[in-house]
Design goal:
Layout lengths: L1 H62 L4 H10 L9 E6 L13 E5 L5 E5 L11 H9 L3 E2 L3 E3 L7 E11 L5 E10 H16 L16 E6 L4 E3 L11 H8 L4 E7 L2 E9 L5 E8 H38 L1
Antiparallel strand pairs: 1-2, 1-7, 2-3, 4-6, 5-6, 6-7, 8-9, 8-12, 10-11, 11-12
Helix pairs in contact: 1-2, 1-4, 1-6
């Protein structure tokens, strides 16, 4: 009798644990896949807004190419629409304005203040005509986001950038210049952390914690696996060939990976409008907390049940002997 009841208890507890663990895994997947999508959409909207503002600036440049002064005024005219953009530039074809010589690249940008200021950055030292973004723009004749790059000129505008680029043509259909709007990865890192904190503290998303801290952080990686944006000391190396292939093909998915010595699950998917992928990194310890806790509780219940049945059986045997 004891063996039969113990077997029933063990099977019932095992089935309960199996069902609960599968439900929790499904809930966790839905939670973090949804979170990854929401953060990705937020970043995409931010980038799309910058693109729209940049197009307004570029259109103004295209309408005012009568003189170098008119170009500079056009760059200044719309800067207030996107204060988070580091700067706008117009890199002209060599000798387009003969009085400006080979390199004419006015750059209206933030420096140490919130105000925009003007720098003339084209020179033999900074021959923009040999830059990848310039060559690509002249060949593709279409707008795009550049690959990340590091710009250095010894001033405070040196840094890691990504640039929204568009070739601009004059009234005769001739390429006049390549315009760009810069964002820095310092700014994008802060923006991503702000979005993470917004969802980390979101009341509806955190209503049912089920013993979890719901701890996570987000990173942005390029399609070649380079970690572009990440919290401090949490850089994420991507070396798996399968993972790199998924990034290149802009796939959604999950993958288990050790991140900074912590076993984690990564939920990833492409960011619309740019060749980047957003990854939400979640420690497996946090994911497993409710499953382990419920497993311990069910095991304790099973043991107590078996002990209780054993005591009852002993009393029954004792009563039969008496």
């Amino acid at each position: 009798m004891l063996l039969v009841v113990a077997a029933v208890i063990i099977v019932s507890v095992g089935a309960s644990f199996w069902a609960f663990s599968h439900v929790m895994k499904a809930e966790t997947n839905v939670r973090y896949v949804g979170l990854q999508n929401m953060i990705s959409e937020k970043i995409a909207k931010t980038i799309k807004g910058m693109e729209m503002n940049a197009k307004n600036v570029f259109d103004e440049v295209g309408k005012h190419m009568d003189s170098p002064e008119a170009v500079i005024a056009a760059l200044h005219s719309k800067t207030s629409l996107a204060p988070d953009v580091r700067g706008y530039f117009a890199a002209f074809e060599p000798n387009y304005f003969e009085e400006e010589g080979i390199w004419f690249e006015p750059y209206v940008h933030h420096s140490d203040t919130s105000e925009f200021e003007l720098s003339m950055v084209g020179s033999a030292r900074h021959d923009y005509t040999k830059s990848d973004w310039y060559i690509r723009a002249t060949k593709s004749k279409d707008r795009f986001w550049s690959d990340p790059y590091y710009y250095y000129d010894g001033t405070n505008i040196s840094g890691h950038y990504c640039t929204f680029v568009e070739p601009v043509f004059d009234a005769d259909g001739k390429l006049a210049c390549v315009c760009g709007a810069d964002i820095t990865f310092d700014w994008l890192t802060k923006e991503l952390q702000r979005i993470d904190d917004q969802y980390r503290n979101h009341e509806a998303l955190n209503k049912y914690r089920l013993m979890r801290e719901l701890d996570f952080f987000s990173v942005i990686v390029s399609n070649d696996g380079t970690c572009l944006v990440h919290p401090e000391n949490k850089k994420l190396p991507i070396r798996s060939k399968d993972m790199l292939q998924n990034l290149a093909q802009k796939k959604n998915g999950t993958v288990d990976m050790t991140v900074n010595g912590v076993s984690s699950t990564l939920y990833y998917g492409p960011i619309e409008g740019i060749d980047w992928t957003l990854m939400v990194v979640v420690p497996n310890d946090d994911i497993q907390k409710p499953i382990l806790t419920v497993g311990i509780i069910l095991l304790a219940i099973a043991l107590l049940g078996i002990v209780a049945v054993w005591i009852v059986c002993r009393r029954i045997r004792y009563a039969e002997k008496v």
